[in-house]
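BACKBONE GEOMETRY TOKENS
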Amino acid sequence: MDIRKSFGLLVKEELRNRCGMSQEELTMLAALNRLYIGGVERGTRNTSAKH
């Protein structure tokens, strides 16, 4: 499985769904666009991490 799809599943199933959070709630908390979060969850967007 593609790393982007694996990461997207983790965001959706392990982070967001387990917390009972909607995409809109996550976008507000993360200060990101809902379309971007949707793309991350589908594995169609590249992500980066800042340290």
About this structure: The CA atoms of residues 1 and 45 lie 15 Å apart. The helical segments are 3-17, 23-30, 34-42. The chain has three helices and no strands.
